[in-house]
Amino acid sequence: MYSGVIKPLIFVFISGFGSLVCFAQSVPDPILLKQEKISSPGWDYFIDKVIDDRAQGQSFANIWYAGEGLKARSYPIDIAGGSGNALREFLQGGLPRNTAGTAINIRILECKIRETNQDNTVSGQILLKLQFELQKNWGVQPLTTYSTSLKYARSIQRPDRIEPALRTMLGNSLKFIQEWVKKESATNIVLARSVKLSFTDYQKQDPDTVYYQKSRPLNFNDFRAKVPQNSRYHAAIFPSFGYDMIQNFNNGIIQVQIDLKVYMVKSASWALQFIKNPYSLNHEQRHFDLVKVIAERFKKKLASEQLSPDNYEGIINFEYLEFYRQMNQIQEKYDEETGHGTNRIMQDVWNRRIDRDLKEL
């Protein structure tokens, strides 16, 4: 009975030594993609993840083929083992996988083969589009996109000619990311490998602000605010600290300069006339000195941190807020233990403690 299904032509020869099967192939074999190692001098990155982000439902390749005695036609075929797996293995294995280096992901946006046939001469085109991404602590940072195509011609009986062309394109994509990283690493801050901190102390004075200087102690002319009515205190000073951050990028290193500002605001500080004496001024000066102590501890803490290009700004800001809280706490403790300067014994204790801390820092 005729079933309407055309089956491959199979010829079987049997002998006493076993059997031999010969056939005229009517369906092309999957593409056997060979692995290839790409030369990588100075390469201290590695391909970690390969994400298959191609459009769903598309065949990897539509190729023309004519088996012996059969009419030429177009066939959908894949890479042996599945194109997703095969492309992943090739792209991950083409470069050294030194996981001590920096991880790069590859996102496959497009990879397909399409052919046309005219008089058993096949014209083909391979389309490839990849996105390279750098792994960060917070996620991924897109680096660059590689988009290319390759045209070829072959005999309709030689689909094996496709694999070398595909392998060349994939290998070229790995060479591309190597060259791109090499070219960009000196000037592109996204590829920064380390962070180097330096510190300066802002000391330029202005009419309403005193920036801390050892050689420039406070005087009562710095207390310019009008005394609030019904105030419980005879004097008040409002010192604080902050910083400016100046960043430069050079040869893979983010150079961060922290310009530290320890200051008091004249228009927010005040003193009653009758307490304007050296003892009272010393008490207010010590408030200012305590801020300097905290600011120096802030610098010391930052200098001990292992900062990376991914997290240095967050760590600097976090530590600043922590030491800002410490500043408020120690100011309250100082006033509480000295009775806002009325307890001369404790004032002397704090004087010696602050002098010691300033000398150590």
Tags for this entry?
361 residues; alpha+beta; Rossmann fold; six-stranded mixed beta sheet; 5 helices; 14 strands; 29% helix; rod-shaped; disordered N terminus
Strand content: 25-35%
The major sheet is characterized as:
6 strands, mixed
Q: Compute the gyration radius: what is it?
A: 37 Å
What's the helical proportion of residues?
A: 25-40%
- Low-confidence sequence ranges: 1-24
The helix tally amounts to: 5
N/C terminus separation:
100 Å
Average of the residue pLDDT scores:
90
Question: What is the topological layout?
Answer:
Elements: E1 9-15, E2 18-24, E3 45-52, E4 61-65, E5 73-77, H1 83-93, E6 102-118, E7 121-136, E8 139-155, H2 162-184, E9 194-201, E10 209-211, E11 235-236, E12 239-250, E13 253-265, E14 270-271, H3 278-304, H4 312-338, H5 344-360
Parallel strand pairs: 3-6, 4-6, 9-13
Antiparallel strand pairs: 1-2, 4-5, 6-7, 7-8, 10-13, 11-14, 12-13
